[in-house]
Each structure stands twice: as C-alpha cells, then as structure tokens.
Amino acid sequence: MSGAQSFGNIFKVPELKRRVLFTLGILAVYRIGAHIPTPGIDSVALAEIFARVGSTILGFFDMFSGGALSRLTIFALGIMPYISASIIIQLLTLVSPYLARLKKEGEQGQKKITQYTRYGTILVSVIQSTGISIGLEAMKSPTGALIVPEPGWSFRAMTILTLTAGTAFLMWLGEQITERGIGNGISLIIFSGIVAGTPAAILQSMDLMGTGELQPLVMLLILVLMIGVVGAIVFTEGGQRRIPIQYAKRVVGRKLYGGQSTHLPLKVNTSGVIPPIFASSIIMFPATIAQFIDHPWMQTVSGLLTPGTFFYSLIFIGAIFFFCYFYTAVIFNPVDVADNMKKHGGYVPGIRPGVKTSEYIDQVLSKLTCYGAAYLSLVCILPDYLIKYFNIPFYFGGTSLLIVVGVSLDTMQQIESHLVMRNYDGFVKKGRLKGRKG
What we know:
Layout: H1 3-9, H2 14-33, H3 43-50, H4 57-64, H5 80-95, H6 97-103, H7 107-137, H8 153-180, H9 185-196, H10 198-211, H11 216-237, E1 240-247, E2 250-252, E3 255-257, E4 261-267, H12 274-292, H13 296-304, H14 310-331, H15 334-343, E5 346-347, H16 355-390, H17 398-421
Antiparallel strand pairs: 1-4, 1-5, 2-3
C-alpha cells in the first residue's frame, strides 16, 4: 500500500479523523497567537536586535517559541515555563513525602500533581516575564531606538500579565491536544514552533548563497549533516536490548499453561526526547533573564550559557545524563517488573527470580541509559560546534532535529495504532513502527 493510501486511511476512521483535525486546529490557533504582539513594544527596534543574535541563547529560545520571542508576541515565553515547573515538581517528589504519596495514589493523586504543576508554571512565567520586561526597558536597537518607547510599571504589569496569560493558554492547548487530539500536546507545540521557522531559514540561506556570503559547499555540508543526524536518530530510537524470559509450565486443573519463551524489550533511549527538552528548559530559565538585563555580571552569565561554548556544553551534557537516568527511573521500575514476572512464573534464564532478576534488569538498563545519554549528548552538541565555526546565520542544532524526528515518530506510532486497531494498514507495509516512550 502506498503512502498516499495509508494517509487516506486516516480519514476513513471517524474518531481518528476527528482527533487529527482537532490537533491541527489547535496548532493553527497556536501559530495565530504567535503573531499577536505584546503591547508597548517597538517591533522594528526589536527585530533589529534579533537580526544579530544568530546562534546565541536568544536565537536558541526563539527557535523553541516558533519565532514568538523575536516578535515578543503573547506566546513569547512558549511552553518552556511549563516544562520547568514539571521538572521542579518531579524532583520534589523525591524529597517531599506528601508529593511522593500523591504520586502513588493513582489518578486522583496525579490530578493534584498536575494542579501544582500549573501553579508552578504561573510562578515561573511571572519570574521570567518580570525579568524580560525590566530588561527590555533598558535595551536599545543598534540604531539607538528604544525597545520600549514608554517604560514604567504600567508597561511591566501589562507585559507580565500578557506573557503569563499566553503561557497559561498554551499549557491549556497542550492538555487539550493530549486529551482530545493525537500525540503529546506539549511536544507537538514545541515541534510546531521549531518547524514554523524552517521556511524562513531556507529562504534566508538561499538569499545569502545568492549574495555569496554563504558558500554552496558549506550549505551542502550542512544538509549532509542534517540527513546524517536524522538517520542516526531514527536508527538509534528503534534500538532495543531484548532480555529473554522463560515461563515455567503450570498445571491448572486438567490444563497445562506456560512453557513459552518471550523477551523483555529495553530501549536504548528509554526516555525519548524528554532529557534534551528538560535540559534546554533548565538552561533557558536563567539565560533568558540574563540576556535581557544590562549588567556586566548578568551578561557574563549569558555569554557562558551561549550554545557552542565549553561551559554551556558541560552543563547541557550533565543535564542530559541526569534527566536520562531520572526520567528512566520514573517510567520504568525493575523491581515491579521482576515481581510481576515472578508472580506469573516467568524468569530470566540463568538468573534467580525476584531480587536477583531486578538487579540484573537494573544493571542492563543502567548501561543502556548511559549509551542513550551519550547518543543524545552527541546529537545535541556536535552540530552546535560545527555551525559555530561555519558561521551559519540561523540557529540549527541537534536538539531541534532530535525533537522534530522524535515527536514525528511518536505521533506516527499513535496514528499507526489507531489504524491497526480498525484493521487498516498503517504507514509501513511490513512490520510496525516501534513504540517509543515520552
């Protein structure tokens, strides 16, 4: 079956059609909001500043917001405050007995944690928007024009209210996609923001090639790099370590059960695209505020947190490794897996059931997580240095490609599941898209 026919099957399933159209409609609302400006800003002067940011942290943040930051629209903060709040709440579950207890209470406890995450999102948004509003008042364009023609507390209050409300609305849109659409809403919003900047980047590159500022050979090398990174992501995301499992034979009444062999699949990258997103959010929070505050110490912090610098790479890689292990521990518990296997008469050949099995699974999972974290770090950091030395005029990094490819695979896998459940062929004729986490 051709790709066009497989795509057409989406509209033959009423529920799937409704979910896909709903998701596209919500993303369209997001893109419209990304062009509604915040009051009190000289957009021309602001554009002059962002025309020179290149691959700095502002360009990095602007990529995640889909260009909303460079225009300082109502969605300028993007969804990153929600990501930051989620990280804080998940970390607090490790040290707070109350939150740890809520996490074990099932659906009701999760609702409470989600509520606290929303409150945290508002708090983080207020802090970031306050720093941005104060910093904007002191900024001037290269031609000397003020970014804020009429500074004061009225402008600050309006900016804080507008940007915070924009992030809260984005958070709600993401939750609606997850509940009533297809795919993970928060990831799709980040995905659409990154993809939205692709046409402008292509046109800008063609213009620079026309003027001779960008050599065709350099552009060809960038394209080859992008294709190579995409191939590495697709290949690695499908990688698994299969632990063999044998089920003992059991006699129940007059029937014989069990005796079959199966396996426990452990992905090389169990945590998916979550670690780079979390790591980026952690770095963006102080870096964004520092970028907008005209103070020597804050500008030093901003320079250290610029993509392509050694300090940024060190912090970023450390954060990726931390969140790889942290998120894997959150979504996969070897003790529970070993206990369930033991209850159903399953065991790993050569390993004693129970504690020894959980220790063995944990050991294998730890090694895979290390490999996965190293792969994520290489994909996210290496392009930054290559682009830095080639002086590419727009921000491109492995992080963006990883998110785009990862979210695409996740969404396609969910659509594939809907189609297969209703006896339709999916996007691939032989085999199925391998499921992913995150």
